[in-house]
Protein 1
Amino acid sequence: MTDRILAAFVPLVDCAVLVAAREQGFAAAEGFDLELVKEPSWASLRDHLCLGHVDCAHALAPLPVALSLGVGYLQVDCAAPFVLSRGGNAITVAARLFDAMQAFAGELTFAKGPAAAGRALAAVARRRPAPLTFGMVFPFSNHNFDLRYWLASAGLHPDRDVRLVAIPPPLMVETLRAGLVDGFCVGEPWNSLAVTQGLGCIVATQSQLFPRAVEKVLVVRTAFASAPERMAKLLRALSAAAAWADNPRNHSRLAECLARPEYLGAPAEPIEALLRGRLQLGGGREAHDPDLIFFHRYAANLPDAADAQWAYAQMVRWGQVAASTEGQARAAHTFRSDLYERSLPAPPSVPLRPPAFDRIEFGAGDLRAYLDQFDVQTPFQDTVAT
Amino acid sequence: MIQRPLRILIIDENAVRAAILEEGLRVANVDEGAVQVHHIRDMVNLLPRIVALDPDVILIDLENPSRDTLEQMFHVSRSARRPIAMFVDKSDSATVQAAIDAGVSAYVVDGLRKERVRSILDVTISRFHAFDRLQSELREAKSALEDRKIIDQAKGILMKQRGCSEDDAYVLLRRTAMNQNRKIAELARSLVAAAALLSLGGEQ
């Protein structure tokens, strides 16, 4: 009987590698059936992974870090042996809020960058009687961390000056339409859909904030990682699928496939545009950046412990965990280049990443020194105040 | 110390399932002490409503997309009684498995007796299963009705075309179905479809 591997996913463009592995026959070529299970929320995906209902999952990069540390949930030993995508998120604000920002700052072109947009937002926010509300997808997500980072760099405290709420990606556009949020940080195609419906304008992309950042990883429980043959064929199929997904010749087919109701159930057009490095920002503006989202080039699939430590640093910065050397080491150990290299050839070289939008470099060596550069932080509270 | 009743909050968009669960929890927890069961059906303004109800246990459909919102609210909530996902307690993984299989997740405030939580969960699991059974019985009843309708139509066509009695038409249908190793309803469906193509039309 053919081996069957179950993978949970949330409908987003960055589940492309899993979809391609199944639909383009890369899993079949390795001799297994890849079955994809669509999840309504990150909480549901996490539960199914942790209880062994699926073998692996398409996960927010900080999720395995939080699980390994047992933050906000049961402690689960898990590993990320493969990076599924880099980039692909964006920050969108309501169309009317964007108008107010431009009234203050003049035209906010893509080239002006996230810092200018942040300053404009802060200026508008300070004149408002009530705090702005922003949506993000999960407490342990780049969406939460990127949004917080960006707000803080503009002088807005994400826990005091604004309200943050978690909303599953497919519901994001509706909450903007209903006026429940003033903006959000989410993965594609949900920003584009808000833009094409005239509801919102994109003010920053993940590729601008943190170029080539790890966005989604493949997560397995440690039990799965200890079956090297299954792991090897899974990673080989994913690597081939990732190379296929990165090739511009395949972008039309990939977009059509992702658009189908069993995957995203969204129009193919903005998905294909994004894959080709184009993004409608709203207000007649367009972004051109070949690295908006990608799946394979620049040694994209190789996990790096430093990226897990970046997520850990953000968790410390926002009071989700208390800083400790033991915690940091445990976090680092979730991104497993050793498991990758056991199944796939090591990339010949890993190119240096461009700097973050604020030019602050992340150094995993001295977390305290890194965090000391930021004025805006939220201390960890062990005992809950009443 | 005055024992206040245990407060259980059901968050479910499906009113029928919530009612079945609510009734089950009321009955089952009588021995263990008083319970108050509340039901929130729509997800608007969830947190203030939860805070106002101050529940000890929250039961929510596993597939409910509001779970991420709920968990983050609990996570940042600075209130004293912060409900946590039931799965945080590793000691009872069989119950957790059964709950997930049944399609329910639970959030429980700290300090509640484990046996009490388990008895609530057991009721919830069995009520969720009961609801599923009800659903599938309803589906079966519906399809039985549809089958009968289509078989009647097919009989009508045969009676008209062959000038035979209703009983003979049924025997013919059954024999043909047996010979072809198909279900009567299935055969009837193809016959009706073919008749429609050829515009023969039976009695409607």
Protein 2
Amino acid sequence: MTDLVGPGDPDAPPGRAAGDLPEAAVRRMQSGAFSSGLSVPDFAACLELGLQPVALVQGFCVMQWGWYGPGSGYSRGMSPYVYGSQGDGSYSETYRCPHGYVSAEHRMWGQNLEQPWVEAAWTQGYGSAYARMIEEATDVGAHGVIGVVDRVGTLADTGNTEFHFLGTAVRVDGGPPPAGGVPWSTYLAGQRLTKSIEAGFMPVAVVASLASVRVWAYCMTEYYMEGQVGWGYAAGGPQLVEQVSKAHMAARQLARKHVRAQLGGDELHGAFIDVATRELSAGDEVIDCTLRGNRMRRFKDFDPAPAPRPTVRLG
Amino acid sequence: MSTSAASTPDLRAEMRRGAETMAVAAPPSSARGITSDLSVDEALLLHAGGWEPLDLVCGVAVVSVPVGVWNWGRGAISLASDAHNEAVDQAARALRAECAKVHGHGVVGVRVEVEVRTHHIDVELVGTAVRPVSGEDPRGTDSALSMPFVSDLSARDFTLLLRAGWMPVGLAFGASFVYSPRRTAGAAMKQSTQNIELTNYTEAMYSARESAMEKMQRSALEAGGEGVVEVKVTEGPMSFAKHAVGFTAWGTAVKLVADEHQFVQPEMVLPLDDAVVSFQAQSLRGQGRGR
């Protein structure tokens, strides 16, 4: 199976395959019968477009997350005192206590820190599963993969993460193979894909990214998140928790930036943003933001649809 | 809405044309591609209405709620209401700033997520920045760029609103939290065996409702709107403070930009197909029970 070559590089075709599928999979795919994950309406729409389903293709990858103990790569994330900013242009923002020395327990320093090593691990798992699905599609001579479904979940109770891709490999009737023989892919199928084609947008690839930001609260953030006003400050009303608000904004903006880096000038349609927050203590948290969508390329000039005709449905 | 297509395109030819685009490697591009969370239908409708998506934008704010606010008391819990309204304002401000950065005239399809916690209130707004293709905004281009609108209307509803001569001007929001008055020990004991209305809760609900709706309508007027459409409400006791009830109301503030309301005059359609009775195999296995 391939190494990571999936979503992530705007210049290289996504999902370059190495061609070492399991033998049983090769035999099954050469059996002559096609398989597809499409619903009947999507299947009908697919034929209408001149797309011939070839095979239901899949890709898997299970990732173990390294431990957070001393000596591990993750120990960089244990304390902002150790390494400071992560460099490489990654996001980092520091906050200093306004009080001076108060006590040994007082949080004199706070930091929002992007965790590129977490992002890289996620990209490896996601990209490998994607590349393996594309490898299967390439092996059956497909031009594209439609109706892609991806799932990122915990593998049983192991704490490991399973990445699973599934889609229907198709060939375009009378159409040329894609550049480099690497199939294009999209989450769309059926009428939605038909409308995109009709509007002049060709799917290039499914794209996704994860942005992970760790928040170490400094004293003021800790106070605010516990409903206090802050040592030495007069009692007041509600306060904007600037550090946490900025960390949330940064996680979303970074996810968008990572996806944009994969677009290579194309467009992202049907984007879906999902945020998971793990609270560690008052203000201390890890924010993981995933953004996924369809990378689409315009293949003809914009052709606006006619003005819609409003209707009322009777019965 | 349906579209009055003059001719049916040759879909197979279009698909082959798309495949030919993919048959050659794309030249390197430094163009800043658009990002959007609109569905295909919404994007096409938006284009048909003369608008285009620009960028996926978001605004997040976390505002603290001072300790002790949820303790027993009487009347409105004004600090919590202030925190809620402040969180929404700050998130909307961040959203508008992102929209302005990409020269958007407004944000449509905004997904509103609010979480009220004991000591902080989190608000997240995510939507797609849009602009008119022609660059001409019914509100005036300068004022549109200086104050982009924020709307939780879908692109479909936004298009329909424009067609009727109205424009969204902002997200109108109101929240109120109120203590439910304590019953006396005697009253509680007396009522414990009765089927009886708990008027303390009913009154608290009414009080919170009135205050929240008033705030929402005031925020619509402050944004220059004439009214609010698609109002959503949430209400009920707080999970962490059952003696306090909260009421939130929000929607899109709109104003008439045409000389008068344009009647859309929809056509009536009588579908001739029968409703399909779907059979779900998983119901035989008892899956989904209790959901």
